[in-house]
Description:
This protein has helices spanning 6-34, 39-57, 68-88, 96-110, 125-151, 153-156. The radius of gyration is 34 Å and the shape is flat. The protein contains 6 helices and no strands.
Amino acid sequence: xxxxxxxRRRQLPVLLLWVNGLMTLGFAGARQQxxxxxxxxxxxxxxxCGKSFEEMMKKVDSKxxxxxxxxxxxxxxxxxxxxREANNASxxxxxxxxxxxxxxxxxxxxxxxxxxxVHWEDPPDEILITLILIPVMLTCAxxxxxxxCSKRSDILV
Length: 157
């Protein structure tokens, strides 16, 4: 006959696995299924954010649209609006649909705000040769010094 505590020992791993399953799958899965993203609602509400941003941007001279300091507060309001509407539709933010909408706003207002690319050129040959030879010569000098000192160990002791 088995000892009284034997069955409890066998049931403990099963109980632990069951609790672990509830904690990892049960609780998280139940919450995710209850709040599915309503993409159509989000796409219906996002244009209001764009319209509000457009109205605010009318206050800024179009020549200053590439200067972020001129409209940073308006853009912050726009970003918060898109995030709020995505969250109200139970969608995470940013998401591909919201990003597509934001990209459309960027194309509308900031398409001419490309930064100038810097054209890098090599320095003149004299400077380039000097910049290469100095470290090479210093390395050779340090190697020579180390070898010379290692042969003259009687001086160092």
